[in-house]
Amino acid sequence: MSTQPPLPSCPECGRRIAAWKKDHCVYCGTAFPPDFKQGFAEPEAVPVFGVLFYLVSSMLRRFSPLAASAVLAAGAAFLGYLLWNLQKIRRR
After folding, report:
1. pTM of whole model > 0.85?
2. Helical H runs in the chain?
3. How far is residue 25's CA from residue 11's CA, in Å, rounded to a whole number?
4. How far apart are CA 91 and CA 68, in angstroms?
């Protein structure tokens, strides 16, 4: 079960917001009102990337332990870079 609060839905098509930074629905193109996202926290994407890198490395481990280690190292480097950028953005 997810601990994140639910995201708002598009007023036109009813789908959840897929691209938080955009000011329109990526499915139907409807423009959001100016205060539409007010009261909702921006979703965090970091856990999703961590799970994806782990799953890919687990599948690769069957065929090549070296490739799985490389994927884990690249994933750790990418997540570190992502977290570093998020910290820079929050300091502004």
Report:
1. no
2. 46-61, 65-91
3. 9
4. 35
